Amino acid sequence: MFYDNISLTNKEKLLKSIPKFEEERIFYFRHEKGNKKSFAIVNGKTQEMVMNGEAWEILKLCNGERIVEQIKEDFATRYSYMNPTADFLKDVVVTLFAFDKLWALSWGKGGSPFMVNGTIKLNEKYDLIWATEDDIREIFAAYKMYADNTEYTYHNCPANRNKGLSDYQKETVLRSKMFYYKEDFFVLKDREGNVMGITSISNNHPETDILEITTLLVPEEILEQVLIGCEQLLKSLYPFNISKLRIKTIGSDLEMLEKQLFNCGFKKVSQLMDEYGKGNDLIIYDWTV
């Protein structure tokens, strides 16, 4: 699992945070076989999901009064007889992270430990910023402005193969991606505050320590600096240990993109031949952080 290294500052904030389970947002709940629970939740849209019994016990401990450290201790007291060597803090944090993304939790003073932003100075010309809602319109404009710039490294994940960047060029869709925590956006800004590039990274799978770069639209000459900046922000602000950034791409003519990725230290880890037909292979590249 991924919960191995948390920086001391983040761990302290995490342990002192006060989550409250907003049970009224769940309008359907049923006990299933194997101690699982199926439920439907409204968080701007309706989602039907399944959780295990342990996750449900953790959520019931989130009463808006206990801090995360107390929740972990209470949960461990209840389940330590089953597995005395288990990492109960990891179980608690994974559950809180998943349900925070579903808008099923509210937080006391200090807010959610998972809703963070930061800035890194890349060089004398650029800063890399973990985007917030204040950046949405600039992100929207940048996706339109730089999509066809030949001096930029361009990547779009296979899930968007039939749409290109069209979804990212719609303000409402961008808001959905950000507010439902579907992707984290990193904005490249110059000293005048102009957005000069965008990187988006999917965090939809907390069970893995590999995050996928879904879009990449940055000047080729500073691609490696942008990736290092993303790494530093993720390590300092994300509650989990991240081992790799991954790029999945399709096509038969990827020589230019591949050269740019190799120059930055990416390695090709898999190639599925003709995965999408017409000679279009699915290729996976990993960058170790």
Task: Please characterize this protein's 3D structure.
It is a single chain. This protein is α+β, with helices and mostly antiparallel strands and 289 residues long. It is globular. Strands 6, 7, 8, 9, 10, 11, 12, 13 and 14 form a 9-stranded mixed beta sheet that branches. It has a 3-stranded antiparallel beta sheet with strand order 2-3-4. A two-stranded antiparallel ribbon has the order 1-5. 30% of the residues lie in helices and 30% in strands. Helix 2 crosses helix 4 (88-101) and helix 3 (68-79) crosses helix 4. The two termini are 16 Å apart. A hairpin with a 4-residue loop joins strand 9 and strand 10.
Chart the SSEs and their pairings.
Layout: H1 8-16, E1 19-21, E2 26-31, E3 36-42, E4 46-52, H2 53-61, H3 68-79, H4 88-101, E5 105-107, E6 119-121, E7 126-130, H5 136-146, E8 152-156, H6 171-179, E9 183-190, E10 195-202, E11 210-219, H7 223-237, E12 244-251, H8 255-263, E13 267-272, E14 281-288
Parallel strand pairs: 11-12
Antiparallel strand pairs: 1-5, 2-3, 3-4, 6-7, 7-9, 8-11, 9-10, 10-11, 12-14, 13-14
Helix pairs in contact: 2-4, 3-4
How many helices does DSSP assign? 8
**What's the CATH class of the largest domain, please?**
Alpha Beta
Derived from helix and strand composition plus strand pairing, the structural class reads alpha+beta
Beta percentage is 25-35%
Proportion in helices: 25-40%
Order of helices and strands: HEEEEHHHEEEHEHEEEHEHEE
Extended strand count? 14
CATH level 4 superfamily of the largest domain: Gcn5-related N-acetyltransferase (GNAT)
Query: How far apart lie the N and C ends?
Result: 16 Å
Kindly provide the radius of gyration, computed on alpha-carbon positions and rounded to a whole number of angstroms. 20 Å
What's the pLDDT, averaged over the residues? 82
Shape: globular
Provide the CATH topology of the largest domain.
Answer: Aminopeptidase
